[in-house]
Amino acid sequence: MFAEFYDRTGGRVYGLITPMIDDHRRSEEITHQTCAEVWGTASRYRAERGSPTAWVLRIAHRLAVADMRSQQHERIQPIADDFADAQESRRQGENVTREHEITLESFWPTVQHRERKDLYRSYYRAMTSRQIAQADDIPVEVVRSSIKTALLAVHLHYVRTSSRPMSH
Questions:
Q1: Which of 31, 37, 135, 167 has its CA 20 to 30 A from that of 8?
Q2: Please, what's the b/e burial string for 51-77 (b: 16 or more CB within 10 A of its CB; e: otherwise)?
């Protein structure tokens, strides 16, 4: 049963983690750790807090961030203006259907560069708002505001796309 669970979720977890970690061996380890933690704590899942997939991916993200911080991942990789490269590398590790996944490509161009860059560094590079502000020499409030704006765009996109009927 665990093997079936891993087959169904491992690709999506690995696809989320790979752009964050940039080390395939560590990404595989975190994928295994995520699936083991989810398997062992399945009784803690609460449907009112979100879908099972969202729960799994939250755990994966938490473990990836913890790994990055434990490795003292202080280097900040340059952020490409074109988010498509990061999406493509994530997709290469993903071997599951994407019909219920929120696709960023459709709304990403509507988000300003500052917001896109800050959200990317916060989520995929595990940088705090303060670290981003220091790196860019701007007030931390500007960073927090841009991240909130980008998250609002994600939420609005999700609401719009989830209310549409599914096409097969």
A1: 167
A2: eeeebbbebbbebbbebbeeeebeeee
